[in-house]
Amino acid sequence: MSNLTERRRIVFRHADGELYAVSRNGGAKHPGYLYLPQGARPTDENIVGVEGPTELARIALEGQCAVRCKNLSTGAQHYLHFSENELCNYEVGSEIAAALGIPEIGSVGEKETALSRQTIEAAMDAYDSYRANGAHSDIFGVFGEPRDYWIRSTRERENRVYPTKPLIGFILGKTELNGGWGQKADAAARLHNAGYIIVDQNDQPAERPERYEHLMEGADRIRLCALNYFIEPGREKAAREVSIRAGDLAAAIGLKDAFPNICQALGGEKFQKLAQVPPPTSTEPNPSSSTVFTYTLNSQPEADTVTDTKKAPSPSAVNLILYGPPGTGKTYQTAWEAVRLCLGDEATAALNGQDGRAELMSTYRSLVSEGRIEFVTFHQSMSYEEFIEGLRPTTDQAEDSSAGTGFRLEPAPGIFRRISERAEKGVPTVPRENVVSLDGRQVFKMSIARANVAAEDYLFEEAITEGHTLLGWEDIDFSDDRFSDVEEILEACRTHGEREGEVTLQSGQVSQADVFRNQLDVGDIIVVTKGNRLFRAIGEVTGQYEYRQRDNRKYCHRRSVRWLWVDRDGVPASEIYDSNFTMKSIYALDRARLDTVAIESYMNSGGEPIHREARPHVLVIDEINRANISKVFGELITLLEPDKRLGTDNEIRLTLPYSKKSFGVPQNLHVIGTMNTADRSIALLDTALRRRFSFKELMPDPSVLSDNVEGVDLQKLLSTINERIEYLFDREHQIGHAYFTGCQTRADIESVMRDKVIPLLAEYFYEDWSKVAAVLGDSTHGPARFLDAKQIAVPGGMTEGDFSSEKLRWTVKDKFDFSEFAA
C-alpha cells in the first residue's frame, strides 16, 4: 500500500521501521525544503533550502546530504541521510520519478543515479572547463571526439549543444558506456527520459525511434521538457511569470501535429504538481499552435508546512533553580518566570508585582491549557518511568470480539517526554475566531468500519457524504427510551444478540452500544481513526441515536454529525494525542493526554493544512531536590545542557529504553525548578544537576509586609526572628515572608505564629525549646511572650544533683505578647 498522498510526494522508511516524509519549512529565514550539506553541522548558517520536492529527492538519494523530514508517527523533525543505517527505503511520486529517471520505489544499493536538471547542467559546466583548460580530462579525455548523439542545454550558453556520452560518463564516474538510446542505460536514453532534448550537432531535434519502448513519450515527455526548458530557467532568473506557447514547445522538441496533446499536458493538474505552480491562464483558441499558457512562479503547496522549531526566535535554553528557605515565594515566583520565558520580557513587564498578579495568573493558566507550561512536584517516590517514560498496562477490545480480557504493557511517555515532543513539534496556529471550542464537550475516539478492510471503505465515505457516524455490533434497535439503562441493553443482547459466548456489561456489544447511545451527547466531538496510529476526520455530534437497518444488517446504529475536518489519508495520532488509539470502536479520550490547542486548530481549520509555530515551552519542577535526581532523569541529565539540545553544534540524541525511540531535548524547552534549602542543603544537591542549572536565591523580604497590623510591626517581627535563627543555626533555615503576607488582623498573626512558625522552629532545633524560646525572645528570667517555662520538680527516687541543669516544661501560651514588635 502506498504511503504517498496528494500532498505528500516523498516518503522514506527508516532502518528502525519508522516512516518519514519531507516537509516544507514555513519559516521566513529558511523557506522551502531543507537539507544540510555533506559533513555540515545543524547550525543556522549551514542549512540550505530548495524550492521543489524533486530537487530535494535528488539531493536525498545521493546520500551525502542530510535532509529534513518529519516522523509520521511522532511528528518530530530530523535531519537524516539516505543510507543503510538511517533512511534505507524510499517512495516518490511518479512525477518525481520521471523527472529523476528513477523507480518510484527503491532502497539503498538499488537506486539508479538521479538525473536532475541541476546534475546534468553541472556536468555541462564541467565539460566547459574541460574544453577551456583540460579539467576532468581523466573522464572527458577518454571519450575522444563526439559523433552522433547530443543534447541541448536548458540554459543560455555560448554553445548549447553537448555530447551525451561524456556527460553521463562524468555523472556516473564511468568511461565505458554507450552514447545512444538503444538501451535504457545508454547515455542518450537516460538524458531523453530526464526531460532533455536529443539533437544533432547542429541543434536540430532528433526523432525518437518508435521501436524503443523504454524511451519516454507523450504527455510525460512534454511535461518534463516544459519544466526543464521553460519553468526552471524562469525561476533561475527570478521571473514572476513564464509563458509557454504550444508551437514553440513543439518546435523545440520536434513534435508535429501534436498541439492537442501539448495543450492538454500544459493545462493539466499533473504539470501543476510537477512544476509546483498554480493553474495557468491560457489564450484562445485552445488547443492551437498559438495557444499561450502563462504560469505564476514561486508558488508552493501549503501542505505539511512546519515552522522550523530549531530556528524560530527564542531565548537560549534556560535551566533555572529558585532556592531559598521555606516561605520565600519560590513557587509563587515560578509563574512569572514561566510566563516571561513563554512571552518575553516586554510582554510580562506589566505583570510583575501584586497589582498584576491576577492578570499574570490568567495568562499562566491560558499557557497551561495550551500545553506550553507543565507543572510537576517531585517527591521521594518519583521515578524515571513517571518522568521520562515507562510501561503502562493497556487493555484493548477489538470490534469483532465479544469481550475484552487481559492486558499488555505499552510504553507511555512521562511528563518530560510529552512536553519535549510538544515543544519540538511546535504549537499549531489557531484561527483568530474559533467557531468551535472544546469547552464543555467530551472528546471520543470513534472507528467507522475497519480501516484495513477495503470492502468497508464505502461506510466511511457514506458517513462523510451524508453527515453521520456509524457503529456496528448487534443488529438490535436501541431506539426505545428504556435502553437509556445499560442493563436493558445487556438483556436485549442476551436475548436477541447473535454473538456467541457469555454476554456481560463489559462485552463489546453492550459497552460500546451504551457509550454510543447514552454517553455520547449532542455537541460532543468525535475523532474518527484510521487504524491505531492515524485519525482522518473530526466532527461534532448533532443528533440523537437512530437505528437504520441495512440490507446486510450491519452498521445500523447512527448519530448525525457535522464534519469539521476530513483528511482521508490520515494524520498521525501524535498530532492531537500523546499515545496511539486502541481498538475499541468508541471511547472517551483522556483530556489530560489530549492536545487541546491542536485539536481545536483542526476543528476550525476549514479543511486547510495545519501550520505550527515554534514557541517557548516551560516545565516547572517544584521541590526538585526532594527526588533522587539520578533515578528520575537517568541518562537524560546530559540532554538538559543548552549546548546538547536539538539543533545545536553538539546535539545529542539517545534511544529511550522502553519505546526505543530516538529522543532529544529541543532548544525551546526551558526548565524551572524550586528547592527548599531547609529541606536539603544546596551543597548536597546532585552535582550533575547542579552543573547543568543556574541558581537564583530567594531570601525573606520583610519589606513586602505591613509595618502596622493592629499595632504589630510585621517587618520587625520577621527580621528579628530571622536574625536570631541565623545566629543560632544558619541562614538557610530562616522564616519566609510568605507566612505573614495574608495576615490582616492580630488574630491572623497569632494563628500563623502558633500553627506554623513555632512548630517549624521546634523542628529546626530538634525540639530544643530553649533555642526556640531564644528565637522568640523568651527566657526563663525575662518576660514570657510566646512560651511558658515551668521548672519540673525532681521525681521521687532521683536527686537534683543527678543532673547538671534545671529541667523545664515548655508550653505555648494561650495569648501572645507582641510588645517587642510594637508598631
Characteristic terms for this protein:
823 residues; alpha+beta; 8-stranded antiparallel sheet; 34 strands; 19% strand
- What's the quaternary structure here? single chain
Distance between the termini: 82 Å
Question: How confident is the prediction overall: mean pLDDT?
Answer: 82
Estimate what percentage of residues fall within beta strands: 15-25%
Count of individual beta strands: 34
Q: Using only CA atoms, what is the Rg? A: 37 Å
Number of helices: 24
Q: Which blocks of ≥5 consecutive residues have pLDDT under 50?
A: 299-315, 397-404
Task: Please explain how this structure is put together.
Residues 299-315 and 397-404 have low confidence and may be disordered. Helix 22 (714-728) packs antiparallel against helix 24 (769-776). Strands 1, 2, 3, 4, 5, 6, 7 and 8 form an 8-stranded antiparallel β-sheet that branches. Strands 20, 21, 22, 23, 24, 25 and 26 form a 7-stranded mixed β-sheet that branches. The chain contains 24 helices and 34 strands. With 823 residues, the chain is an alpha+beta fold.
